[in-house]
Amino acid sequence: MANKTYDLIVLGSGPAGEKGAAQAAYFGKNVALIEKEDVLGGAAANTGTLPSKTLRESALYLSGFRQRDLFGLSFKFKEKVSASDFMYRERLVVQSERSRISHNVKAHNIDLYRGFAEFSDDHTVLVTPKNGTPVTLNSDVFLIATGSHPFQPPIFPFYDSRVYDSDTILHVNDLPGSMLIAGGGVIGCEYACMFAALGIKVHLVEGRNQLLSFMDKELSDNLTKCLRNSGINLHLSTEIEEVTAGDNLGIQLNSGERIEVETLLAATGRNGNTEGMGLEEIGLKPSPRGHLEVNDHYQTNLDHIYAAGDVIGFPALASTAMEQARIAMVHAFNLKYKTELATI
């Protein structure tokens, strides 16, 4: 096994990983970037931020939501939008973003390693590729930016092809006539709006008494009003007790109501990607949902190991993740740049 030493080793090529690596490399540091997936970009480029925003625009366009007749000019749209119509633009945009990230990594002379990284000790990782020889890398500074994956509630029958999470929904083959979305967070509200815009009958179930509870109540209330005006059936302060698979999916709510839909989307939060990395063995203990605790400089309890992005939990936004990683690297290498997140 080959050994190589770097100033910085970054685990994960999503927004935090890419920008953290580029920040350090820009200031002359020797950087290695490790990515276990076949494509760069993490969830933001491949299953989350960028795909969902592209699908939103596709939904608005294909549904004619933003089109108006002007002085006798009429825009005609297909009566029934297919899944292929819906996904076409998303695939193009995702591929473009993957290419941009690859170019940025090369432009900063960052060494890219493909494979799964596991800590051998707190200064060493073993990178095991899907095919090939494992590589041992050493560094005095690490940035863990391994992202997250959808949490799958055990009562949901994910073996059924009609049950999706926020990653697998991007592979939907046919647009259903009806859908229940579990979870009234950012992801749930976003998909509820876009599917409703396509004419799909949408039920949105949220256990709390308001949507996006981290926001100001006035904003949450306005969003609730907009969703209801869009024809979305909201079920607040409501939990799902049981899901049964038959000709349709039957969802039993704790309110006593039973809903039958063609498709179920679980938007029930995300877990940090920390399993199997050997973190406990070096003194880092992720939360039950796989998240790492950090201080204001994004240091874990091991001062030379930083973490940023979805792997540290809320707010789990791409733009915030980028800034978190930049701030972490500024602190790690005492760079004269930025020291805190910008407020809006």
Structural commentary:
- Keywords: FAD, Flavoprotein.
- Residues 6-325 form the FAD/NAD(P)-binding domain.
- Its cofactor is FAD.
- This is FAD/NAD(P)-binding domain-containing protein.
- InterPro entries: Class-I_Pyr_Nuc-Dis_Oxidored, FAD/NAD-bd_sf, FAD/NAD-binding_dom.
- With 344 residues, the chain is of the alpha/beta class.
- It folds into two domains: 3-150 and 271-332, FAD/NAD(P)-binding domain (3-Layer(bba) Sandwich); 163-268, FAD/NAD(P)-binding domain (3-Layer(bba) Sandwich), CATH 3.50.50.60.
- The chain has seven helices and 19 strands.
- It has helices at 15-26, 42-46, 49-63, 83-107, 186-197, 217-229, 318-332, and strands spanning 3-6, 8-11, 31-35, 111-114, 116-121, 124-128, 135-139, 142-144, 148-150, 163-165, 178-182, 201-205, 233-235, 240-245, 249-253, 258-261, 263-266, 270-272, 305-307.
- The strands form five sheets. A five-stranded parallel sheet has the order 4-3-2-8-19, covered by helices on one side. Strands 10-17-11-12-13 form a five-stranded parallel sheet, covered by helices on one side. Strands 1-7-6-5 form a four-stranded mixed sheet, with no helix packed on it.
- Helix 1 links the parallel strand 2 and strand 3 (31-35).
- Helix 3 (49-63) runs parallel beside helix 5 (186-197).
- The longest helix is centred in the first third of the chain and has 25 residues, at 83-107.
- The model is unreliable at 68-77 (pLDDT under 50).
